[in-house]
Design a protein that fits this description.
The complex is a heterodimer. Chain A is of the alpha/beta class. Chain A is 38% helix and 19% strand. Chain A has ten helices and ten strands. Chain A has helices at 11-24, 61-66, 105-122, 150-162, 174-177, 195-209, 223-230, 251-272, 292-302, 304-310, and strands at residues 44-49, 73-77, 84-89, 126-131, 144-145, 183-188, 214-221, 233-239, 242-249, 278-283. In chain A, α3 (105-122) packs antiparallel against α4. By secondary structure, chain B is α/β, with parallel strands linked by helices. Chain B has nine helices and 30 strands. Chain B has helices spanning 2-20, 58-75, 110-128, 157-162, 175-185, 335-339, 396-399, 447-464, 523-543; strands spanning 21-23, 26-29, 49-51, 80-83, 87-96, 104-105, 108-109, 134-141, 145-152, 196-201, 216-221, 228-238, 245-255, 263-267, 277-278, 286-291, 297-304, 314-319, 326-329, 343-344, 351-355, 365-368, 381-384, 414-419, 424-429, 434-437, 474-475, 487-488, 513-514, 518-521. Classes of the chains: A alpha/beta, B alpha/beta. The interface between A and B is medium-sized, with 39 and 21 residues. β8 (233-239) of chain A pairs parallel with β2 (26-29) of chain B.
Amino acid sequence: MVKLEPLPIKAQFLKEYALSNQRKWRSSGGGAQLRHHSGQSLEFREHTIYIPGDDVRHIDWLASARGRGRDLLVRRFHADESFHLVISIDHRESMCYPQRPGLSKIQASAWLAEALAAIALYTGDQVRLHSLFGRRGQTYGREHKGPNSLAPLRADLNRLVSYQPQAKIDISDLGSILPPTAIWVILTDLYFIDDKQATQLAGRIRSALEGWRTILLIEMNSWPYEKALLGEGPRRIAGPGFLPAEYEIDGKALETVHNAINVNRQNFHKMIDHRGWVKDCWDWEDKTQMDAAHFFKERFQTDLELRKILRRQE
Amino acid sequence: MTAVLWVLGSLGLLTLAAHMFRPNVEPRWLSAAQFFGKLHPPKTRIPRWRVANPFKSPLLWVQLLVLALLFYAVYSVYVTQLVPSGVGVGVWLLVDTSASMGVPDRFGTRLDAARNQAALLADRLRIASQDGPVCLQVDAFDLERRNLQTATQEIGAIHRSLQTLDARPLGTDLGLALSGRNLVSQGINTGCAITHLVVISDQPAPVWAAETGAVEVIWLSVGKPVDNTGLTQIRAVQNALTGLVDKVEVRLQSYGSGRPNVIVKITKPSGDRLEDSPVAWSVDGSARVTFSPDPPGLWQIEVSPTGAYSWDDRAGLEILPEERVLVDWQLPNPEWAATLGWQLESNRPHLRVVPVGWPLDDIPTLVVGEGYSGSNSVQEIQDFKESHPLLNDLNFDVVETLPLPSGPLLEGFEAVLRGADGGIWIAERKDPPAVYIPGMLLSSDDNLGRFSTIVFFNGVRFLLGRRVPPPLYTLTTPLELTIEGSRTALHSGEGDTAQLANGFGSLDQIMPRQQPATKEPVWPFWLVLAMVVFCVGLTLSLIGGERWI
């Protein structure tokens, strides 16, 4: 059973991240990123919390006063931008490594999912979590919207990763929760046990791209850290999908394994056989000592692909 | 203790060895394990163990520290340190419970008088407790010291512990009180920091009670002097030739100024009584009665009338059946043994009679020379051991007229009678006992024949007289208190109830004072420290991960 640690990023930081992301991209307008709109009418849709930069003419002072003055509320119309964000998490056994004192891939994925979801909720978007290897009927939670949904979303996240991962990938439920123009973020280490799993996921990505969906696949690559832990010398290697075996580890052996991982990655990319998706990679540091919170914060802040998919258009 | 130290030392070496040999193949759990299938297996078998530098392991140092602390704890098991005490009163009460404490006294017995004294002590402690803490412990003593109350601050415990105390049919060992004082003076922790040793006894205070020291001794004497008459000793009188019990001597003593008319009643095993023996006192108050103990069995001795102290008025004696002397006769003419009433026996005899040259052992042995015939040498005596039993009844003037053969001085022997030419006529070996004589008895009735007879029987008496007869009775002990059969309570000194028992000190001396420092062993400290370090090491190895191992 996976026990998740609290997100090491404060809520205020995420709000500022969302704001700075909005300002950074306000005038860009270009790029291959699709815009996703809910429509062109001026029909009132909902209230959201005021973020500096919003049109002050749209502040609903009466509603804000009723909200006991904590936040200003802005009227949103159907002309405003909002999107559906679906985050798929791989929670198989390989994602549960490296173990403490390192940072496991599932922990990093959970933090990333929570951070992305928080930003989306602050900006009035809808978020749903999905489990890549969940049991049919248990692969996704309900849709969340608004900042008050953060706690239930966190509960959803804990629930999804607590389920026993299935041997085969189940993405049949995605059809119902991944509307066109949605943003789909996939968090995995690509360590599929067999080609069938890779083929299924690659095929699903391909078909998702045909619905003008934005797809960001973030590979959690802990190999540099595991390589540092491995060192050189006689070793008994064991792990998911692998019977323990003894090897004399030297530079040549490490290079062979490194190449095998690269080939696995490249093969998966080839399977997708489409241009419209974004690949990203989080590489663990090649040191045996690791500050998990510092690593995550640094990667999250400097990851440009994340900023791109969360940008809003004026 | 040496064995324990060896074990600890061995454990240290084993620990070192265990840290030297590490598993060569280190296990690793990796998420990327499946990609190692691309690797070729090693060409040669990987050795299971490798030699590592053990001193790099912090855990080794922790473990060695634990062993070192255990080693030191065992090594210093007899080491103590003085722990200072405060100001207060610590009383160790010793109450005499020997047989004489049962003698009737003014209000009950002497032990009742002791209880009264103890009550006064309790009153004194209550007063002293107003000025400082009070601690006490109570023991009874006779031939052993028994703890009645361990260290307590409850003064009422004195009365409680003495309530059911009785005098026992045992003697008095004042050394027990002395050893108690010495224990405290040496700082031995008895549970209380003792400032005063209070002894209640009907024995007079010994000299050491007045010695100054860390502990004040207060000797409270009880029991008014009262006359008494009783048995003091019963001993066997041995037959000088055979060593067997020939007579029994009963000794009596009259304590006090009077010399009462008493008789000694002696009852045979059959229940018949010998004629009563009136006692004739000597000037010092002692008297003696003897009788022949025939037949063997349990005899009863009784003094009548009885005295103030009852346990010396009667005794039972066990007279064993007459035992024939066993002799290993290695000379010609063994009929001599039968003539003397001896039984021939070579296996662990009482006496061995052998010629010169016979190997000697620890059996008393009479070594007989080649005999008196063939010797023409008449000579003067060179020297002799004066008053030696082997020379009893010998007329030296006559001896110097006899042609006595000169014998060799055997190894380990000393000359007792020697001729002018240095030749040995009579010699002895002290341990194991043996005697050399010139020859066997002669049947002639002349001076030489009488000489041969006298030296022969002197030698036999000398050797057989050393036999210790079996005891006629036993004394009661702390483990065997019951007076029955031949077990008696004739403990020395108990019957002297007429002596004036002088005490020493008074209860008024009891007041708070600086209590002596006590000695505490140091090993528990080192043991606890070893346990703490062990727990620390265990915790580190559990949570610290591989770098601690």
